[in-house]
Amino acid sequence: MRWYRQLRYKLFFSHLIIVVIADVVLLATAGFFARAGLVDVAPLTLGAAASETGPIEPTGVGAVEPPLLQQFEAVLQQALFVSGFAALITAVVVSLFVSRRIVEPLHTLSTVSSRLAEGFYRERTRISSDDEIAQLSQSVNQLADALEQTERRRLALLADVTHELRTPLATIGGYMEGLLDGVIKPNPPTFKMILQETNRLQRLIEDLELLSRVEAGQLPVVARCTEVEKVLEEVAAQFEPLFAANQVTLRMELPRQLPVVWADPDRVSQVVINILSNACRYTPAGGVVRVSAAYNERLVQVTIRDSGVGISAEHLPHVFERFYRVDKSRARQSGGSGIGLAIARHLIYAQGGEIWAASEGEGKGTSFYFTLPIAPGAFEMGPGLSLPPAAVEAP
After folding, report:
1. 213-238 in b/e burial notation, b at 16+ Cβ within 10 A?
2. Helix runs in the chain, H state only
3. Are 134-215 and 224-373 equal in CATH topology?
4. 224-373: which CATH topology?
5. What is the pLDDT of residues 319-332, one digit of tens each?
6. What residues form the membrane-spanning segments (predicted)?
7. Within 10 A of 348 (CB to CB), how many other CB atoms are there?
8. Closest of 336, 318, 353, 213 to residue 275, by C-alpha
9. Nearest Cα to Cα of residue 339 among 365, 319, 353
């Protein structure tokens, strides 16, 4: 960049031009009014005609002698030139100071922005002031924090995906190597184990693909009038054998009639399947899982509460993050991929709802809540008929 295009020099020359114009105008205006005032309206003390016998009387218009007028103009111009030069020097000093105060922070912001663009997300600006530039600096730092967190999540995601893919592949490779070496006999249990790991690998790949599509907004969500109680009952019927095998009781505690919601029944089913799978997985034998619902004039809230292992307060805010597990060893042994709740969150958000979790601590069970908007006109069941609104628990 050429020097005359830099901001500091533009500010300097703008201040300088303002001072020069002010000086020229001041000189011209002062000279004009000084001459007009001395010639046309002479003061009493100048040009007075002294009388030896009487009082001093003014001589009137034009009584100021030309040498005196010229001398006064010269003194006035000299004073104006001195003051103008002093103003010019002051303007230069102030301009340099202001230019430095403005340009240097902007240069710092530009440098930090360039470093962030190059991938150095730990760079921060340190501008100690209380103006718009400081606010801009704070915004840049917030952007840097967000980029750094995103980069950490990306690296953690790569590490988690690598680990999750490596585990079933290592198992399959070990069994196949044992079969080739004759260490493992080719019997049905061996083939069943290889098939299970293959299915696990396939499920993980499908979940990753689904998560990437959901986060990119590429997963179609076709909202329509949906009877949410019917979706809940259908999913519960699918899980009854699994709950019975784990000796866990599944109870449906739905109201007599729920209003119709505006949602995609297939995506709602996916969300309920993810939550019920976790509830069944982490609820010990003899436990109970309850599915209930409430509604008001705007939305329907579904609650799935279990009496399982619970979640501590430090882990609760992270349960909807990708690959986050409260107990990693237990989750891997039970086959969870760690992204089911992340998918559920995006699916609920895509349908205009909210989803959150609550737990009183370890060993005290966990409750999952999600809301769905009520379809327009859902309460108009007939002439003069409407469903009474129920209280919906807030997150």
Report:
1. ebeeeebebebeebebbebbeebbee
2. 7-40, 66-117, 132-181, 188-215, 228-245, 265-281, 328-334, 340-350
3. no
4. Heat Shock Protein 90 (3.30.565)
5. 887 766 665 544 44
6. 12-34, 75-98
7. 23
8. 336
9. 319
Q: Assess contact for 331 and 325: CB atoms under 8 A.
A: yes
Take residue 99 and report the two structure tokens written for it.
């230019």
Q: Could you give the CA distance from residue 386 to residue 352 in angstroms, rounded to a whole number?
A: 24
Contact assessment for residue 175 and residue 193, using Cβ atoms and an 8 Å cutoff:
yes
Does domain 134-215 correspond to CATH entry 3.30.390.30? no
Q: Which of 156, 7, 183, 162 is nearest to 96 (CA)?
A: 7
Residues comprising the chain, all counted: 395
Q: Which residue has the tokens 């279990």?
A: 306
Instruction: Provide the 3-class DSSP secondary structure of residue 173.
Output: helix
pTM given for the model: 0.57
First to last CA, the chain: 55
Buried residues in 290-300 as b, exposed as e (16+ CB within 10 A): bbbbbbeeebb
- 380 Cβ contact partners less than 8 Å away, ≥ 6 residues apart: 386
Per-residue pLDDT, 49: 43
Please name which of 249, 272, 269 lies closest in space to residue 341, comparing C-alpha atoms: 272
Q: How far apart are CA 295 and CA 190, in angstroms?
A: 51
- Specify the amino acid at residue 58: P
In the chain, where the domains are located: 3-120, 134-215, 224-373
pLDDT digits (tens, 9 = 90+) for 38-87: 555 444 444 444 444 455 444 444 445 567 767 766 776 777 777 777 77
Residue 271 burial by CB count (10 A; 0-12/13-18/19+): exposed, middle or buried? buried
Beta strands in 42-98 (DSSP E): none
